[in-house]
Amino acid sequence: MEKYLIVNADDFGASTGVNRGIVECHTRGVVTSVSLMVTGHAVHEAVSMSREHPELAVGLHWDVWGEDERKFDIDDLRAVQDEFHRQLDEFYRFLERAPTHVDSHRHAHREKRLMPLFRELVEPLGVPLRGDGRVRFVGGFYAQWQWMLTNLEYVSVPFLQRMLRDEVGEGWTEFSCHPGYPSPDYAAVYCAEREAEVRTLTDPRIRQTAEELGIRLASYADYKAI
After folding, report:
1. Separation CA 95–CA 193 (nearest Å)
2. Taking the model in full, what pTM does it have?
3. What does the pLDDT average to over 182-200?
C-alpha cells in the first residue's frame, strides 16, 4: 500500500501576506492543499490565486473567531449549524464548486460536542473532515505550543524530515501548516513564525526526503480521485 501525504496550509484568505506565503509554498515547495477562510480579509485575492493554480486543492476552513477574537458561542449548536451553512454557501459563491475537504480555525470543530454535528454537516459533501479518520491528521509542524512562546525548532527542516520518517505510514496522512509573510492587513501572535514555515516548506531537502521514503505528495482532490 502506498504512502500518500497531503500538506495542507490553513488560513488561506486571512491576509495578503498569508496568501503569498501559501502560494509560494505550493509553487516552490510541498504544499498541495489549502483551507480557505471565507471570513478572511484577503479572501477575494485567495480565490483569484486559486484559479491561477488549479492543482491546489481548496477546502473550507470554518472560522468564527479569526485573529481579532470575535465573540461566538460554540455551545449554541443551532448557531454553529447556521454559520456552517452560511460559510459553505459563501464558498460555493466564490469558487462555484464544493470544497475538497473541511476543517476549522483553531480546530473548533473537534470540540467534543461539535464533532458529531460536523460529521453530520459534512457527510452530504462526500469529502473528508479533519479528524474523522479517513485521513490521518498530524499537526505537529507548529512553532508556538505555548501562548506567545516561539520555538522555531518545531518548524525546522530537520524536524519536518523527522516527521516524514516517523509520522507518515501507509495510506493517507495530512500535515497541517501555517506559512505566510507579515502584511499590514494582518495582526496575530503567530506571524513571524509563518516566515520560518515558508523557508522550511520550500527547502528542496523536504521533497528529497519524501521521495527517498517513498512518500507520494498528493492533495485532497487526489484523495477523492484515487
Report:
1. 29
2. 0.96
3. 93
